[in-house]
Amino acid sequence: MSDTPLSRHVLNRRRAARRHVRLVDAALTRASTYAHPAGHVVRIETHISVVYLAGRYAYKIMKPVDFGFVDFVRLDARRRCCEAEIRLNAPFAGAIYRNVCALFIDGRRCRLGRGNAKAIDYAVRMRRFDQRMLFSNLLAQGELSAGDIDAAASKLAESHRHARRAGRGARAAAARLGSAALLREQVLAALAPLETDPRTARVVRDAGLRATCESELARLAAHLDARRANGFVRACHGDLHLDNIVRHGRHALMFDCIEFSDELRWIDVTCDLAFLLMDLRAHDHTAHAHRLLNRYLESTGDFAGLAALRIDIVYRALVRALVALLKAGRPEREEENRREGKYSRYLALAANEARAIREHTPWLLLCHGFSGSGKSVASRSLAERCEVVRVSSDLERKRPGPFAAPMLDALPASAYTKASVDAHYDRLVAHVRDVLNAGYTTLVDATFLKAAHRARFAALARELNRPMLILNFHAPQARLAERVDARARGPRDASDAGADVLAAQVSQADALDAQERLHTVDLDTDVPIEAFSHAQWWAPLFERMRAENGEI
């Protein structure tokens, strides 16, 4: 069999590819190949590409490989991929990507740029950045900040808002992009090798991952296809882990998006978000993950997307576990132990998320208090401590449409008539229903000073059979007035409440009745703002939930 023409052709092609790789690699590791000062050239290799750090720039080439899901054997395929990388990364990291350069032979040397000779390969030219600013390195050094998370959430939400939507398409391949059927295939394809590898098979089996994935994907099929029909399958990043995000001043840039596979790039925006959430949690930074989720939702209002978030996180964890396992290969024992921590970390996360799909019982938490009571600041702090989704009344009132960012300008008086307020609470109820049905504890940040509004949410909790608590944030009236006045004099805020609004609230509020007091936790906010970040301040809430056998 090894002497057949086909096998000789394959062997000859592989030898030619290896010779080409050696030629290109030798050229791009020489400083003289570049048209600018290159200094010491640093080489970074992945399974499908090589990046050369040369002076102020980085150059990325695609290897002439064929892994089935990607085929770069032909030169024109590598050129098209380089061009696509420049074009597709622009929404996420336009400041980094510059242009495509040709590698050609000039006499006895190879050079990058332009020339009369025919190109032998192509490279993506990028502006080089400080590797220490990668989110993965910042996280490892304990320097990834809340500001970095906010910047990433803002950038991702903005990119998703402006991304192209998947069309219905006449071609079957186009119609499948982002569909429930395709997601099921992708999840099970990532799971299958982990079920058979002796290093991972037992964990996968004991966690019941296949049964959970199949049942959850079947349950969500109609939801996923409806999301596609409603425009939430878009041209996403597709590979949004911590190694692909860099701090750039006060901003976050996301580079190296999926450019070689429409099926991996045209996905639901929630699946794109899930990758980064998963990676933060896999590295034991759950507070950052909670903050990222809530900041993204504040920017987009896409609470309906949460329905598939848990299975998307399982999927992303399985993919990273599989990549780590493939990288481990068949190493010596020391290397195996080093790699084992990576794939076991992702598998443990997938198992925990699958358990949450099956068992988690979410709570409904209603904030209650006058303007200036500190409930918004405090509720944000709680949403970073726990897996809680915060729904802000002020932000949702100022959201001009689905998936749009809130407008912080003051609203006219007509937005606060009884009819307008009742319609606004209708929208809040719909959002909260989506979050609770997705299995997430929901914290509603509103004044809830009217008994009728509280009653609507209590009815929702009974309908969905979810436990509910009222968090009564209170402070002396002088402190309330002081805070409202300070907010009015400060930067733009989602709240329009001023001194007149506070006075009206105090005179017109419906007090909590005896039945409501049975489900109320009192929280004194006449404390320094830093107290909201401490577990001790939230102890009354945590103790109450533990007493009622809840989870948070």
From TrEMBL:
Domain Aminoglycoside phosphotransferase, first and last residues per copy: 160-306
One Pfam family here: APH
Coiled-coil residue windows: none
PANTHER family given in the database record: GLUCONOKINASE (PTHR43883:SF1), SLR0207 PROTEIN (PTHR43883)
Stated name of the protein: Aminoglycoside phosphotransferase domain-containing protein
Organism field: Paraburkholderia unamae
